[in-house]
Design goal:
The complex is a heterodimer. By secondary structure, chain A is mainly alpha-helical. Chain A has helices at about 10-20, 25-50, 60-95, 105-125, 140-145, 150-180, 190-220, 235-270, 275-290, 305-320, 320-335, 345-365, 370-375, 380-410, 415-440, 455-485, 525-530, 555-570, 580-600, 610-615; strands at about 545-550, 605. Chain A is built from 20 helices and two strands. Chain B has three helices and no strands. Chain B is flat. The chains are: A mainly alpha, B mainly alpha.
Chain lengths: ~625, ~110
């Protein structure tokens, strides 16, 4: 019996998670926190749809509606979609490249806690005088005029969680560049790893503009500067540019990992090598590259002039080309394959037409002249929900089912999974398809109510009914998770039986050191190659030896907590005397924790060869 | 002998070759260091001389700055060596993104 696998009490488990630097446990933390914020953002979406179900509704007031819609967008993008993707990247990417952890486990934990405290800070605004109300884009002309502390919560909260995201991105980049197993060349990396790589590079370049924009906003609102104050020579359009220089790559940061997840699922359940692997890689990189040249298509009506509009319109349409390459590759992967329609595969198949729908409206919106008609209407709302829900959320739900056994060692119930899928798919199209037409009929975006008998009544009611379908689907998924966790039926290495990549060669969940011996990678889909040659698992690339592991640390929590405290100080600095004191105390906690981290030598520990020999693999062999 | 320490576990390290390499490396460093001092002097003279117009000085100093950055990266930070491809890729991608941003700000915000 291994000393590493002892049962622990509740308190010890909580402490373990608070101090963990293990990528698999951090992944679970991301999944829990991201899931929580997803439910919160979903509730806000339900309130929006209930308010708009019937004309002249007074379910919420106009001001509260603005807060709900702002928090819905902000929460879903920054606190739900990104962390959930980070969860899967953390859980799967190191396993796919045959690494024992990410490059900087401590920084990985720090990234999570920064995100978590930033998200909590942002959501505390609900209880402390009102949430931000200038939309998730928080355009400076609106946000400078917003009273109360809502926007301050937005700026400070996103600053903290954004720092965490940036750290996570850099960590993934270093991991993929430096920690691939022997034989795992760049062009043998699974597509999910590739899309993690490109998305991380986008994070590296896209988050600094957001950081700059948020700092300017913080300075303007809290410290009396005039970057966006037109009366004092400022310029509010600068915010729009900075925000969208971040904001457009952000949508690719979200959707590329989803593409990666679907690529894995298509290959696995078609039981075929991914069609056009190298063109898939090329398309992913090209989308990442072009993603930085198109931000102004969000600002066609700002008045940039016809030349700028034309350049950005053409660049935007160019992105449809690599995306099209991907769509055809997925179709050809399925072509002639021996397809198994599991729950993840259902999501993947439904993703193609749904996402293409969003892509088509995307090209329509990219035509600058036509955009003047669509701008700020429900047509835009329909478009980005088609790409984000049809692309990213489908991807997340598919990944939840697909990778659940690898992360937790149990299989989610397939029947309940399929019920979730159908309810969600029908609800999604019911909610958002009709919104295209509501937009074309003139319903503006971000309005809190509408008048009866203007042709908008039926469409809005249908849309609300669809939203309830999605809510029920989410509830069934949660029930599925509870049932599966209570039953706790453990599965083997390769529960889908068709696993192709390295993560399926090790137990589910993997031992905390992942690979006893690093595997030797002999080509794309390394496990599939070994299976085709009649082998049970990977050939090791090294003799069994001691494994060096990092120690747990409570420091990431403390560093993040300090910034969380300091943010309250900055927020209340002008209202109360204690503001400055709190700011100093918070920064003190952070700097002291960083100081402790710097001067205290922590060399980690070794798992000795003898312990590895005795430590039986958890779960059965496939 | 102290000068023959190699920091390498490999017993077949060719110390002669290493020494020659290091000497060559050192020569490059000194040459580029004196070049950098010289370019800095040129920049100061260009501004201090007083007879050149701003239209000449500004682009000229920017050009000198670019040369300095190249020296810094390639000779002092060893970016010309093997194994620096990934940092180089990310540096240049970052530069591209930054320049596009500046270009856009110069042309469509503050034109």
């Amino acid at each position: 019996m291994s000393t590493y696998a002892q049962k622990k009490g509740f308190g010890a488990t909580v402490w373990d998670y608070l101090t963990t630097v293990d990528h698999k446990k951090i992944a679970i933390l991301y999944l829990i926190a991201g899931g929580l914020f997803f439910v919160l953002g979903g509730l806000e979406a339900m309130f929006i749809r209930i308010q708009l179900a019937v004309p002249n509704n007074d379910f919420v007031s106009a001001g509260l509606y603005n807060e709900i819609l702002t928090m819905h967008g902000t929460t879903m993008i920054f606190l739900a979609a990104m962390p959930l993707l980070f969860g899967f990247m953390n859980a799967i990417m190191p396993l796919q490249i045959g690494a024992r952890d990410v490059a900087f486990p401590f920084v990985n934990a720090l990234g999570f806690w920064l995100f978590f405290f930033g998200g909590i800070f942002l959501n505390l605004s609900w209880f402390l005088g009102g949430a931000p109300d200038a939309g998730w884009t928080s355009y400076a002309s609106l946000s400078m005029a917003s009273e109360g502390h809502g926007i301050d919560f937005y700026a400070l909260g996103l600053q903290i969680s954004g720092a965490g995201t940036l750290m996570g991105g850099i960590n993934f980049l270093v991991t993929i560049i430096n920690m691939r197993a022997p034989g795992m060349t760049y062009m043998r990396m699974p597509l999910f790893t590739w899309s993690t790589f490109v998305a991380s590079a986008l994070i590296l370049f896209a988050f600094p503009p957001l950081t700059v924009g948020l700092f300017l906003l913080i300075f303007d609102r809290m410290f009396g500067s005039n970057f966006f104050d037109v009366a004092n020579g400022g310029n509010t359009v600068i915010w729009e540019h900075l925000f969208w220089i971040f904001g457009h790559p952000e949508v690719y940061i979200l959707v590329l990992p989803a593409f990666g997840i679907f690529s894995e699922i298509f290959a696995t359940f078609s039981r075929k090598r991914l069609f056009g692997y190298s063109s898939m890689v090329f398309a992913t990189v090209l989308i990442g590259f072009l993603g930085f040249m198109v931000w102004a298509h969000h600002m066609f009506t700002t008045g940039l002039g016809p030349i700028a509009n034309a350049i950005f319109a053409v660049a935007t349409m160019a992105i449809a080309v690599p995306t099209g390459i991907k769509i055809f590759n997925w179709l050809f992967t399925m072509w002639g394959g021996s397809i198994k329609f599991t729950t993840p595969m259902l999501y993947a198949v439904a993703f193609i037409p749904s996402f293409v729908g969003g892509g088509v409206t995307g090209v329509m919106l990219a035509s600058a002249a036509a955009d003047y008609q669509y701008h700020d209407s429900y047509f835009v709302v329909a478009h980005f929900h088609y790409v984000i829900v049809g692309g990213v959320v489908f991807g997340l739900l598919a990944a939840t089912h697909f990778y659940w056994p690898k992360m937790f060692g149990t299989m989610l119930n397939e029947t309940l999974g399929k019920i979730t899928f159908w309810l969600f798919l029908i609800g999604f199209h019911l909610t958002f398809f009709i919104q295209h037409f509501l937009g074309l009929m003139g319903m503006p975006r971000r309005i809190f109510t509408f008048l009866p008998n203007q042709g908008l009544d039926a469409g809005n009611l249908i849309s609300t009914i669809g939203a309830f379908f999605m809510a029920i689907a989410t509830l069934i998924l949660l029930i599925n998770i509870v049932i599966t966790s209570v039953k706790n039926q453990k599965v083997g290495n390769d529960p889908w039986e068709d696993g192709r990549t390295l993560e399926w060669a090790i137990p589910s969940p993997p031992p905390f050191y992942n690979f006893k011996q690093l595997p030797l990678v002999r080509g794309l889909d390394p496990l599939w190659i070994e299976k085709m040659e009649g082998k049970k698992g990977m050939t090791p690339a090294e003799p069994l030896g001691d494994i060096h592991m990092p120690n747990n640390s409570f420091n990431p929590f403390m560093i993040s907590l300090g910034l969380f405290v300091a943010a309250f100080g900055a927020l209340y600095r002008e209202d109360y005397n204690w503001g400055v004191l709190v700011l100093i105390v918070g920064m003190g906690i952070t700097l002291l924790s960083m100081f402790v981290r710097s001067v205290k030598d922590d060399h980690g520990f070794h798992i000795h060869k003898e312990d590895l020999l005795n430590d039986d693999d958890k779960g059965g062999k496939a | 002998m102290a000068s023959e320490q190699t920091h390498s576990g490999n017993p077949r390290v060719d110390i002669e070759y290493r020494k020659k390499k290091s000497a060559e490396e050192m020569r490059y460093q000194i040459v580029s260091f004196s070049m950098m001092i010289f370019l800095t002097l040129v920049a100061f003279i260009a501004v201090g001389y007083g007879d050149f117009s701003a239209w000449f000085i500004v682009p000229f100093i920017l050009l000198l700055a670019v040369v300095q950055v190249v020296f810094q990266l390639y000779y002092f930070m060893h970016m010309s060596h093997k194994g620096h491809e990934a940092p180089a890729l990310f540096l240049y991608s970052g530069l591209l993104v930054g320049l596009i941003t500046i270009l856009a700000f110069m042309t469509i915000i503050w034109w």
